[in-house]
Amino acid sequence: VGDSPVFTCPPSPNITVLMWKIRPKVGGPCILGYRADTNMTDRTNCSDSMKWKYRPDLVPDLEIQQVGIAQEGNYICEVATPDRNLHIIYHLTVLVPPRLSLYCDEHGHPVCEAAAGKPPAKVLWLPQNNSSLEEERHNNGTVTVLSRLTTACGTNVTDTTCMVFHPAGNWNESIAC
User: Fold this and answer.
1) According to its record, what are the GO cellular component terms (predicted)?
2) pTM
C-alpha cells in the first residue's frame, strides 16, 4: 500500500492499438486505450491514479500512483500490430503492514496487537507460552490479530517478546508486566 507499481506491456513495432483493461476488485472496470492511426488516447472510468505512460518510442507502461486496497485486481495489456496480437495479465495484490502495539492488560498479561494488516499477521511469543488468539476482520479486507499471553494466576511475566511476521515486514517488541 502506498507504493507506485509500474506494469509493462511487451514492446512491439508498428502498434496499431494498445489497451489496458483494468478490472479492480472494488468498483467498475477501467480502460485506457491508444490508436496509432489517430494518435489518440482515451480513458474510460479510470481514476487519476492510473497514469498512462505510453509514447511510441517507449515501452507502453501503466503506473498506479499511491496504490491502495481498492486497486487490487487484474491488469490486462492488449497490443495489436499488423502481424500479431499480444496480451499480458498482471494480478495486483496489495499488502498492508499491520500497526503493532504491545501492552499489559488489566490482569497483568502481555497483549500483542497487529492491527489492520493484509494478509493477517502471525503473532508468536518468546519464551513460548500459552496464548489466546483473536482475529477481527474489517470491511476493507484488513485483519486485526490480538494475542494475549496467558499465565498461571499470580505469576508475573517478565521479559517476554512479541514477534509479528508479515509479508510486508517482521517486527518484535519486548515487555515486562
Assistant:
1) external side of plasma membrane
2) 0.77
